[in-house]
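Human:
Focus on the backbone:
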Amino acid sequence: MIVDKAFKIAEIDPRIYGSFVEHLGRAVYGGIYETSHSTSDSYGFRNDVKQLIQELNVPIIRYPGGNFVSGYNWEDGVGPVNERPRRLDLAWRTVEPNEVGTNEFTRWAREIGSDVMMAVNLGTRGVDEARNLLEYCNHPGGSYWSDLRKSHGYEQPHGIKTWCLGNEMDGPWQIGQKTPQEYGRLAYETAKAMRLVDPSIELVSCGSSSTGMPSFPEWEAITLDHTYEVADFVSLHQYYGNRDNDTANFLARSMDMEHFIRTVSATCDYVKAKKRSKKTMYLSFDEWNVWYHSNDADTKIDPWTVGPPQLEDVYNFEDALLVGSMLITMLRHADRVKMACMAQLVNVIAPIMTENGGRAWKQTIFYPYLHASRYGRGVSLLPIVDSPKYDAQDYTDVPYLDSAVVYREDEEEITIFAVNRHLEEALELECDVRGFENYRVVEHIVLENEDLKAVNTADEEQVKPHSRGGAECRDGFVHARLSKASWNVIRLKKA
């Protein structure tokens, strides 16, 4: 590998380390919020969960959905809690008690140091609902909706700056599914009205639900033809699984993510050229993760309950390796990917798990997310890599070494993120850092385990990192042994 400060990709927007809390399963009720829990604060939010989230340093959290938002009336979730209606949530076939709504969530997010990425309902509702919610949240006062917020005890506006124009509107599972023409027109008119209420906001146009959609990427081309000049981002969603238990193929799936990013970027640039625009459309990868473990269990859950255990994937060690590669992929595309949300944050396909009334713990995927959020802030550099490759079932020429490099000039620090995809052999890494004089290795964090299927539970943490990696810098070269099937964080600082 060759690393040089001249090989800059872009400044990394910290919001790529965002996450997602949807009114789904135990993400809210039993996750971040549980009034009877021994650690809960005066508002009912669990402090043990809050501490784990703060450890991750999550800069932005998408809310309240997800599929949930396409049938959600935000007015149900404001005002006195004891007067709020219980509603059927058709997206996940549960009952929504509306104990947590816009104000409670926004206050909680501020307490943990996160901004809110708010989604508006463009499934069953539209322009009116969106402009009213924005007025409620952001207008200082002297109008119906802003004064209603004040009457609910929130004198100061929430100042939410990032807004999603609906969710997965091309999906047949979505309440109020739209054709690309229908969505494009509705999103444009909604954006126009919202910008009249608050011109300072950022807007995310809804992209395809995944690369597997029949309309991908035509959906982006048609919808952006309407929203290109009023939106700042287009959304990407992607989940990966290992149902065939083919680990070599599974660990190569970040190459599909890379292709997804390149395809959407190219589609955005096509619309830019078509419109003779000077504006570059950025990407919001606002749903991404591994998701497949809980599929069978979810079919057995009784409908119409509050906070059932839905989408509770128990993540293993190989899942953490792919999550690491997905983070690496986004870092290598920091010039276009400016926001991202690991979906989700607690209990629902999440790095943090809880017991109702009991403990909270870190899943295996917590650690690469933690390391990237902690050390992956600064400028993304393009590493020039010569790595041996392998062929998998769905991918050819898969590099065993997957890597990204981040440079923090103000801290005089370089961080090398590296996944060794080889399942049987270590990689001997030699990294040329002669462009950085007098830098030395201060830490080599490794996440490894002999058992690819090892998991963490409330009782036992089988998968956790150590700092015994042994990398060293000699004469301008970093030498490191990357264990088989491992996630590595090599940190260098100027002596």
Observations:
- Residues 67 and 174 are 6 Å apart (CA to CA).
- The chain has two domains: 13-377, 381-494.
